[in-house]
């Protein structure tokens, strides 16, 4: 039994370092992880650059192996330090961790550059892990809340924008015709989205006077209605500022891995397991 | 008389399914309608794509016939289930329903691809029917209200923007001249709208130093005044948030087809006819 | 004396029609004026279009003469109906009225198309007269107030934007060099304004990796700081909504031509002359 | 000792003129400085223009010498009039003043146009001195405060935007491939930033249907989330409006050069030295 307690303590210790950011060692681990993820993303991006690739090939190749081995050990540590490994393995971040680690191993078994390219790009999914770490920053919580609260309204608004773009795009297809680059209704709708959102590439542009008049109306409208989502978020955000925000910490339950416990909580709000506050 | 009552009940039942979304059958009908409209819009858009058209011609042709026949039956059902058919037929949505259904029938009598193109595009008007269905979403009501309330101010603002564009466009026409692409005052005004709304196609761009200086001033101004409509909508929306919003449902009066009755209303607010709440 | 009184009454009547919009005749006069100004602006814009010009030359030529003669009579009526003509003649709108009326007369004495082009464009100054008429719309007063109140802050903000553009433009000039289209510091600053305001013509675009990185930073910054003027106007506008707005009418003093008298005022707030409320 | 007092008074006088803007002489000195800085910036920008350079070379050359000599004397005056020169010399503005003054002297010792170009551009750093002078404008203090308060949130937001751009850019790289101009992941991410911020150069644009669909989604998203920073600044600014703002003046302590003393303060808030209010 003593032996068992010892084992549990050892696994709890590992759990605390990997899953939580409240202890010095946990913070240090998160910082190391953050740096390795950022380096890894920069290396994957560099790999795709043609000229650069030849010159720094050796460096990128060995760096990628070192990082992949680190992430492999980290993945194994995450699985063994938790009581119910299945919960982590099949969670969103568990899948991200797995999928972003295996591409290098897969590259041994795969032939054909096209499929390999996609597989190798999977390593960029590690960027989601940054979001997991930065989740603990108070500001991003407030921001995420403001976006979440106004999500329904902004989606309805964006849906209305798409409907307007389909109608206006079809009109432009009839007015301008295929000689001006408005080759089909989908292309015209694409042009209309490019114009209404004020992006304006210029690869397709109206050339007939009536087409230019309609385009001007679409632009003026886009300039006028951009105010709508802003008004919504402003109001939601101002309302959110007033509501009390409960302080949660990054502590994770060693039994069910649930997070966001209130400061001073003694039991997991999800499974009732004791939380170790050391 | 019993026979008459039976007929009325049968027509009331149909009326409830087609015109209202409060009963399970009514909701089911609306969802089927929504899916068919969306499919129909995607098919019309696909039809305009050149390469795709040849390959999937057969599929699109038969699909369009099935959808058109469904909409034809639906139109007839709408006309016979209402007490005063003229009220529906000459309403905005009645005309939309009619005009978006007939193009396929008209295509038998018309020759000449150009006119036919426009007629076939009329089927896209079905998109307005989505707006009719989505009208019941609470969020879109609030959004529509916010836009409606600030409409007058935004129109005055956009009018001022157009006046500024006419003055600045004329100046650019004089400064840049026809060699730089500023071929006429209307074209210059069009360019000015493209610039002020920050779309910026780049098909016309100033080349003289003075023209570029004026263009820079227009951009800076456009960047500064985009705040004005936003401020208006924000204020209107924040004010709208505070005012009480009466809950209305989608029930339509079987006598006059008036809608937006308050929850629990027993008589039509328009004609005083009894509302059937079953 | 009776004769003199009669004359004053006749001139007062004319003054009321031309300068005020509270009587039916005054409103009718304003509407006629508005239509003629709009027609006139459309004609001037059409005149600059090459192909159209040849075809509709005769029509535009005679229309312009009719409109110019109307504006000439209107100008004379404005001068004789006011007690102190100098006050009107040297006011902003007096100069606009004069300068926008004479171009057609001047075209007899001038030779050389380039100077003539500028002179003829002066007719477009009539657009300012629309602003004078639309001044009476309540919404535009509120809008003008909101812009006026936040003018100082927006100017300081735009000044800061220009300073940022000069620094970033110089950096881009050094990084990209003249081969990429960044030919001089002013051109680079112009490009930077085009980018920061999210217009993005694409006539000049960075091609070196470091240039593209800096450009991305400028864009991200532009995307982030566009919020600043919006926040200012929103706050000013919300504050302005609360303050009481005094109702003013369009009545002009027949002595000093001062306007914006409060409803029910009996004497001019500027010179103390009696106001005729009939 | 009397001699020493006299010296101190003479240096205090100079200190007041150069470092403060509360006395007429101090204000006059600031205005002269502002004009010279602006002229200097215009001259540096003109120098880079090719055609202009040859024509006005002589004028620009002598002007630059006059301005540089003035700034040299000003720098020396700033150093000798302060009690602890090291504090000024190694402050941000001290370094700016030094670095923006020496380029002309350095140009004697340097050969090679490329390095010289960068050194000469250092003179543009004088623009930061405008910010130092304009710091005393109340509006810019409020603006700076609003930006400062919402800085953390906007940075978190912009970081999230960059993460989204890396993910979407990689997707576009896989979808569009190198033939469409998406040559590498960094280039694709750059394109994605150009699109999301609604700049839209058009030098790179998607050509495949799936690429255009994804691009449309990115634009719609960019159009929707631009509301987020605006909502943040609006809320911060509105909150800032309510908080009391203490009036500070431009007086600088002659001992430690600390600034922003409250109106009517008699001793430096930093070192306790007497402030001379004459």
From TrEMBL, chains A, B, C, D:
<keyword id="KW-0851">Voltage-gated channel</keyword>
<keyword id="KW-0407">Ion channel</keyword>
<feature type="transmembrane region" description="Helical">
    <location>
        <begin position="28"/>
        <end position="47"/>
    </location>
</feature>
<dbReference type="InterPro" id="IPR005821">
    <property type="entry name" value="Ion_trans_dom"/>
</dbReference>
<dbReference type="Pfam" id="PF00520">
    <property type="entry name" value="Ion_trans"/>
</dbReference>
<dbReference type="InterPro" id="IPR027359">
    <property type="entry name" value="Volt_channel_dom_sf"/>
</dbReference>
<keyword id="KW-0472">Membrane</keyword>
<feature type="transmembrane region" description="Helical">
    <location>
        <begin position="59"/>
        <end position="82"/>
    </location>
</feature>
<keyword id="KW-0812">Transmembrane</keyword>
<keyword id="KW-0406">Ion transport</keyword>
<dbReference type="InterPro" id="IPR028325">
    <property type="entry name" value="VG_K_chnl"/>
</dbReference>
<feature type="transmembrane region" description="Helical">
    <location>
        <begin position="181"/>
        <end position="201"/>
    </location>
</feature>
<keyword id="KW-0633">Potassium transport</keyword>
<keyword id="KW-0630">Potassium</keyword>
<feature type="transmembrane region" description="Helical">
    <location>
        <begin position="154"/>
        <end position="175"/>
    </location>
</feature>
<keyword id="KW-0631">Potassium channel</keyword>
<keyword id="KW-0813">Transport</keyword>
<protein>
    <submittedName>
        <fullName>Ion transporter</fullName>
    </submittedName>
</protein>
<feature type="transmembrane region" description="Helical">
    <location>
        <begin position="213"/>
        <end position="233"/>
    </location>
</feature>
<feature type="domain" description="Ion transport">
    <location>
        <begin position="27"/>
        <end position="242"/>
    </location>
</feature>
<keyword id="KW-1133">Transmembrane helix</keyword>
């Amino acid at each position: 039994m003593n032996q068992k307690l010892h084992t549990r303590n050892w696994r709890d210790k590992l759990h605390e370092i990997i899953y939580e950011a409240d202890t010095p060692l946990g913070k240090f681990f998160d910082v190391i992880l953050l740096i390795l993820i950022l380096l890894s993303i920069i290396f994957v991006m560099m790999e795709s650059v043609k000229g650069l690739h030849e010159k720094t090939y050796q460096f990128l190749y060995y760096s990628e192996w070192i990082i992949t081995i680190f992430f492999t050990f980290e993945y194994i540590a995450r699985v063994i330090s938790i009581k119910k490994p299945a919960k982590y393995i099949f969670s969103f971040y568990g899948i991200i961790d797995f999928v972003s680690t295996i591409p290098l191993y897969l590259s041994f078994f795969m032939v054909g550059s096209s499929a390999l390219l996609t597989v190798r790009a999977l390593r960029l999914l590690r960027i989601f892990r940054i979001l997991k770490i930065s989740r603990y920053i108070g500001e991003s919580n407030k921001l995420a809340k403001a976006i979440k609260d106004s999500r329904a309204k902004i989606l309805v608004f964006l849906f209305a924008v798409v409907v307007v773009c389909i109608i206006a795009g079809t009109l432009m297809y009839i007015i301008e015709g295929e000689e001006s680059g408005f080759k089909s209704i989908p292309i015209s709708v694409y042009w209309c989205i490019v114009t209404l959102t004020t992006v304006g590439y210029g690869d397709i542009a109206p050339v007939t006077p009536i087409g230019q008049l309609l385009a001007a109306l679409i632009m003026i409208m886009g300039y006028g209605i951009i105010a709508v989502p802003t008004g919504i978020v402003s109001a939601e955000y101002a309302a959110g500022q007033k509501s009390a925000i409960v302080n949660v910490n990054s502590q994770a339950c060693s039994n069910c891995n649930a997070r966001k416990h209130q400061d001073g909580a003694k039991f997991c709000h999800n499974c009732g397991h004791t939380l170790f506050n050391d």
